[in-house]
Amino acid sequence: MMRLASVLVLAALSCHAAAEWVVISDNDEYVAYADPTTISRDGDKVQMSDLIDLKSPRPSPRGNLHASSKAHSEFDCLDPRMRPLVFSLHSDPMGEGDLVENAAVSGGWLPVTPGTLLRTLWQFACS
Asked: What CATH topology corresponds to 2-126?
């Protein structure tokens, strides 16, 4: 089962070369991108990949220094919420370099609060 999760993580996140990243937010801390070519809809639910490029590397909650993150998430377009399905941290900008951390996430839904990056991602995915 763990091997399957690892394969899914790598498959979902290895499409960087084919990605068509669109800037959806740029501030002092990061540039956030979404890939509209990864959007898939199933009723009121949408899945989409995103990439966060940090302006300067920082440690993860586990203490691992990283410069970017990539995720593939599901968004509920009726109820403002989302859940990450796959998530990875990378040593270099734009999801490049060494894989610092990765996870196939099966957690619950997270609220999408106005004024947050999650809200910007939700709006892009659901528009």
From this structure: Lipocalin (2.40.128)
